[in-house]
Amino acid sequence: MSLSKPSGSNKRKITDEHRQFKENRELQYFCSEINNKILCLICKSVISVPKLYNIKRHYEQHKSKYDQYEGLLRQEKLKEFLSGYKKQQIMFTKIPQENEAAVKVSYVLSELIAKHSKPFTEGDFIKTCLIKTAEIICPGNLKAFQNISLLRNTVAERITELACNLSNQIKIKIPTFEYFSIACDESTDIGGTAQLAVFFRACDMEFNIFEELLEIIPMLDTTTEEDVFVSVFKLLKKYDLHLEKLSSVALDGASMTGKIKDSLKEKKRMKMLNINFIGHISQEQDVSVLSDPMWLQDLHGRYNEALIEFKFKIAREKSNYNSH
Fold it and tell me: How far is CA 168 from CA 174, 211, 281, in A?
């Protein structure tokens, strides 16, 4: 008659024994229980099996050197080991915090470089200034300033990430906008490529004004009326900006005005572009095409006048209602 072998699931595991670490072993074998693991305070290695035999066998490696400590000397040595371990853990915690601060400073300074239209290489000069300042004012924190990365490629990456984040924020806010206007400016860069800058201004139900540069579109081939038209309306589709909410288009000059006007007249061609939200414009007059560069200020002035009149009307109607 053959005996069946016990299944693997019935084997006893060390974790199932729920062994308790005795405090007197700290002083006796210079080990301590940290995060449910037995750690040798001498060599900082983990004793995998928390049994007395394994702890004692591990201590045998250091016995000849540390058995000489007895009584108060041994207690002081244990305190020294525990204090050293805690300092080591604090150091490892402090390093990530310093690195996080250095990365944050790198983003902030990269944003300032972009806002002031400075070349990316300015980052190296700024870092040199920071280090020289730290050497005089706070030499103890010099290493933290040295950890700030402001290399040309790093600054370029930081600015790209910030731009992507801004684009995502715009997409989140767009559904709350009631009306919007765009301003287009065509210019040529140092390489001879035409660049079409599209600015965006909108307001929500609470009359909060939001404006931002949507995108700079490189016109790689030609800048005909069709090229400008397709580029602008593809950009509006990208950001899910519906034409029924478009109140005005501001342009930089007569040539651009003609391009947009001619495109708006050709409603049939707009349908051929397969842009879902195109088709709301029945006449050219439905969208105001302006060439005045001060359109934003004019719009803001009209908004303030309308807001005052609107508040006055509400107050008057409220007063009439209370009188009844």
Answer: 10, 14, 28
How far, in Å, CA of 186 to CA of 224, rounded? 12
User: Which residue did the predictor score with more confidence, 9 or 147?
Assistant: 147
Q: Say how far apart CA 234 and CA 16 lie, in whole Å.
A: 64
- Let me know whether 126 and 187 are in one domain: no
**How many Cα atoms occupy the beta-carbon half-sphere of 310 within 13 Å?**
8
Domain with 44 in it: 17-88
Residues 83 and 102 in one domain: no
Is residue 144 helix, strand or coil?
helix
Tell me phi and psi for residue 88, to 5 degrees: -65, -40
Average pLDDT, the chain: 72
Q: How far is CA 248 from CA 9, 124, 185, 284, in A?
A: 74, 43, 14, 11
Query: Which comes out higher in pLDDT, residue 136 or 54?
Result: 136
- Quickly count: other Cβ atoms within 10 Å of residue 262's Cβ: 16
Domain count, the chain: 3
Predicted TM-score of the model (pTM): 0.42
Q: What amino acid is encoded at 19 in this protein?
A: R
Cα distance between residue 66 and residue 30, in whole Å: 9
pLDDT tens by residue, 7-34: 555 665 555 555 666 677 777 777 887 7
